[in-house]
Amino acid sequence: MSAGFGPAELVEVADQVFAYIQPDGSWWINNTGFVVGGKAVISVDACSTRARTAAYLERIATVSRAPVTTLINTHHHGDHTFGNYLFGTATIVAHENCRASLLQAGLPPRPGVWDPVDWGDIELAPPTLTFTDRVTLWSDDDPIEVSHVGRPAHTDNDSLVWLPRQQVLFCGDLLFNGGTPFLLMGSVSGAIGVLTDVVAAYPAVVIVPGHGAPCTSSLIDTVVGYLRFVLSVARQGLDAGVGPLDAARQTDLGQYAEWLDAERIVGNLHRAYCDLDPAGHPLDIAAALGDMVAYNGGPLACYA
Questions:
Q1: What digits encode the pLDDT tens for the residues 267-299?
Q2: Which of 11, 175, 250, 297 is the most buried (most CB within 10 A)?
Q3: What local confidence, expressed as pLDDT, does residue 3 receive?
């Protein structure tokens, strides 16, 4: 962890509902959370490295001595799933595409894209209970509704975790607070639809994003504004006949320039080109990651 970031913060966002916020929320530094019941704890996501996930489990133990019996994965990306194996016998719940994508992706990520990370002796632990549309878990008498968003957005397996009594929504990486959204493995246009039609429909008092501080639904409009900006740049790039990397280099990020991981504009443009012209611009994830490194002038900063 970068020396300037400080420790993770445990925030009780509702009665017996906690968000575990890891600064600074950049590459591979995610949020998790958990719900405490009388005899069991339910966790929302793991962390990226052995050390970070072990620290998270230690913080859970400061709140409750009950075991973590269930772990929900909001999607398959490694910052939310690489630590799954440390949850022992807990049932790992996720959308069926999450299991398939995690098994396909494997671990760790390809070298040369990010600064070196001490992952620890991580092991692949895919979800053990999968669903197609939605599933309801229970913490004592309180329901926890886990539902797939219905279309590609951040990935093709994004799920929302909704606590109706507490009006708390864990939305995974559908929202970044203070960081640049990343849609390479999902859909820019799909994410706009999911945020405006699905996420905004929840009467959430508190939203826990995948990265950054807990927030309210006002963040939805901010993120949608960025996604529409990406689509606009992509249309201009396609019309001008330039590729995503050149389009990114020619773009003034304006109000989004200070967000963490601004180089994600390149990966997002690769996806947006595919969204707008799938036949002419089939997605090449390896090429997109390479272009992000080129835009950044070297490996992407990572403090995980």
A1: 999 999 999 999 999 999 999 999 999 999 999
A2: 175
A3: 43
Tokens 């008498």 locate to 141
Total-model pTM: 0.97
Contacts of residue 88, Cβ cutoff 8 Å, sequence gap at least 6: none
Q: Is the preceding omega at residue 24 within 30 degrees of 0, hence cis?
A: yes
The b-or-e profile of 181-206 (16+ CB within 10 A means b, else e) is bbbbbbbbbbbbbbbeebbeebebeb
- Give CA–CA dist 88/69, Å, rounded: 9
pLDDT for res 63: 98
The domain defined by 9-224 folds into Metallo-beta-lactamase; Chain A (3.60.15)
User: How remote is the C-alpha of 55 from its chain's centroid?
Assistant: 19
Three-class SS of residue 71? strand
Distance of CA 39 to the CA centre of its chain: 29
Q: What is the pLDDT of residue 2?
A: 44
The amino acid at residue 7 is: P
- The list of the chain residues with pLDDT below 50 reads 1-3
Q: Which of 139, 146, 106 is closest to 125 using CA atoms?
A: 106
Q: What are the residues whose beta carbons fall under 8 Å from the beta carbon of 278, sequence distance 6 or more?
A: none
Cα dihedral 303, 115, 109, 186 sign: positive
Q: Give the residue range(s) of CATH 3.60.15.10 domains in the chain.
A: 9-224
Q: By three-state DSSP, how is residue 94 classified?
A: strand
Q: In what order do the strands lie in the sheet with 159-163?
A: 134-139, 142-148, 159-163, 168-170, 206-208
